[in-house]
Amino acid sequence: MATDVVVPTLGESITEATLGQWLKKPGEAVKADEPIASLETDKVAVDVPSPVDGVMGELVVSEGDTVNVGAVIARIEAGGAATAATPAVEDRTAVGKAEAAAPAEPASAPVDAEAGDPMTLSPSVRRAVLEHGIDPSKIKGTGKDGRVTKDDVLSAAKTQPKPVVAASAPVAAAPSVSAVPASGGRKEERVRMTRLRQTVASRLKEAQNTAAMLTTFNDVDMTAVIEARNKYKDLFEKKHGVRLGFMGFFVKAACMALKDIPSVNASIEGDEIVYRDYVDVSVAVSAPNGLVVPVIRNAETLSVAAIEKTIGDFGARAKNGTLKMDDMKGGTFTISNGGVFGSLMSTPIINPPQSAVLGLHRIEDRPVVKDGQIVARPMMYLALSYDHRLIDGREAVTFLVALKNAIEDPTRLLIDL
Question: Of the spans 50-54, 93-97, 276-280, which averages the highest pLDDT?
Answer without folding.
Answer: 276-280
